[in-house]
Amino acid sequence: MAGQFSETKNATKEIQAICDQVKPNVGKYPEFIAVKYRVQIVAGQNFIIKVHVGGVNYIHLSVFQALPCDGGQVVLRGVQEHKTEDDPLVPF
């Protein structure tokens, strides 16, 4: 439904590709593997993505992807560090 975030879903190749695009802006981690995500349909898409960054460490990314007709640009909006595997994906 437009305007609301989806339920939490398992990450896909497409979600990993989005993470790979913003990784240079996030920092250096031994791993950078998308695990879970939520999406909100707006004039584009907002994503909250859980990323495994090594060991028991996770981060959450807030990412916006513009519509293809607007260039499809991917923009990192925020990062939450010190997350765990069990932390829920909450919009921030």
From TrEMBL:
<feature type="domain" description="Cystatin">
    <location>
        <begin position="3"/>
        <end position="84"/>
    </location>
</feature>
<dbReference type="GO" id="GO:0004869">
    <property type="term" value="F:cysteine-type endopeptidase inhibitor activity"/>
</dbReference>
<dbReference type="InterPro" id="IPR018073">
    <property type="entry name" value="Prot_inh_cystat_CS"/>
</dbReference>
<keyword id="KW-0789">Thiol protease inhibitor</keyword>
<keyword id="KW-0646">Protease inhibitor</keyword>
<comment type="similarity">
    <text>Belongs to the cystatin family.</text>
</comment>
<dbReference type="GO" id="GO:0002376">
    <property type="term" value="P:immune system process"/>
</dbReference>
<dbReference type="GO" id="GO:0005829">
    <property type="term" value="C:cytosol"/>
</dbReference>
<dbReference type="GO" id="GO:0071220">
    <property type="term" value="P:cellular response to bacterial lipoprotein"/>
</dbReference>
<dbReference type="InterPro" id="IPR001713">
    <property type="entry name" value="Prot_inh_stefin"/>
</dbReference>
<dbReference type="Pfam" id="PF00031">
    <property type="entry name" value="Cystatin"/>
</dbReference>
<dbReference type="InterPro" id="IPR046350">
    <property type="entry name" value="Cystatin_sf"/>
</dbReference>
<protein>
    <recommendedName>
        <fullName>Cystatin-B</fullName>
    </recommendedName>
</protein>
<keyword id="KW-0963">Cytoplasm</keyword>
<dbReference type="InterPro" id="IPR000010">
    <property type="entry name" value="Cystatin_dom"/>
</dbReference>
<keyword id="KW-0391">Immunity</keyword>
